Amino acid sequence: MWAVRESLGLACPTVIDETMTDLALDGASPEPFAIHMPTAISIGSVSKSIWGGLRIGWIRATPSLLERVQQTRYATDLGTPVVEQLATAVLLNEDQTQRPGALRQLRSQRDALRQALSEHLPGLHAPQPAGGMTLWAAFPQPISSRLAAIAPDHGVSIAAGPRFGIGGAFERHIRLPYTLPPSQLTQGIRRLAQAEQALTRGATGAHRPAPVA
Fold first, then answer.
1. 98 φ/ψ angles, rounded to the nearest 5 degrees
2. 65: Cα separation from own chain's centroid
3. What is the C-alpha separation between 30 and 22, in angstroms, rounded?
4. pTM for this structure?
5. What is the C-alpha separation between 194 and 7, in angstroms, rounded?
6. Degrees to nearest 5, angle at CA 109 with 107 and 113
7. What's the mean per-residue pLDDT of the chain?
8. Angle between helices 182-200 and 100-120 (to 10 degrees)
9. What are the angstrom distances between the C-alpha of 111 and each of 120, 149, 173?
10. 5/173 Cα distance (integer angstroms)
11. Residue 102, by phi and psi: left (phi above 0), alpha (psi -120 to 50) or beta?
12. 204 alpha-carbon distance from chain centroid
């Protein structure tokens, strides 16, 4: 991966989403992309690495671009949470984004989710993510939207795969977060398996798929 980053020489503006880089579960966190491309626009958020309730993001870019962003912001930003930004600055300066305990918990929950999938949905292809908070899984058939419509009948909500693409893409896929305790994850997958079995028997659902999962 490092060699790929070093070899990139894109002639267009490059925006890099680094909101999950502090959540590497298998190995070290990737180094900032800007090391290899100083002109890249990097964005991040402490709501993933520190606390979900701290909804503060950041942008790393060239000074000239940041000045343009600041000038544009006055016309679009209706309220700036000053205290939260000051708290975020302190946490970043003190390197508080490194939280080994939280990573151990996420790793345990990820493993519990994959174990539940292997037991209750063995036909689902679910590669192990190297980090982050969600798992991207694929069904053998394009049933994601229909499954999302029937899943609430079995006590679970999922976001259909096409919500994460365009033109009907990802109809075979679902996005499964592993941010809950292992027991709840196992229960959720058990209910999702029941919904999948009902769908196979010809059942239909009338629910609108959840906007996120």
1. -85, 110
2. 27
3. 8
4. 0.83
5. 47
6. 115
7. 89
8. 30
9. 14, 27, 19
10. 28
11. alpha
12. 29
In terms of Cα–Cα distance, which of 162, 106, 156 is closest to 135? 106
State both tokens at 189.
């997958």
Written as six digits, the tokens of 98 are 């490194």
pLDDT digit string, tens, across residues 126-184: 999 999 999 999 999 999 999 999 999 999 999 899 999 888 889 999 999 999 999 99
Cβ–Cβ under 8 Å, residues 167 and 128: no
Beta-strand (E) ranges in the chain? 15-17, 41-45, 57-60, 134-138, 173-177
Q: How far apart are CA 166 and CA 88, in angstroms?
A: 34
CA distance 70 to 80: 12
Q: Hey, what are 159's tokens?
A: 């976001």
Amino acid at 46: V
Count of CB atoms within 10 A of residue 22's CB?
Answer: 19
Which of 30, 48, 179 has its CA nearest to residue 58?
48
Which residues contact residue 21 at a Cβ distance below 8 angstroms, ignoring those fewer than 6 apart? 29, 30, 32, 44, 131
Plot region of 170 (φ>0 → left; ψ -120 to 50 → alpha; else → beta): left
Q: What are phi and psi of 57, to 5 degrees?
A: -110, 175
Q: How far apart are the first and last CA of the chain?
A: 28
Predicted confidence (pLDDT) at residue 1 exceeds the cutoff of 60: no
φ, ψ for residue 188, nearest 5 deg: -60, -40
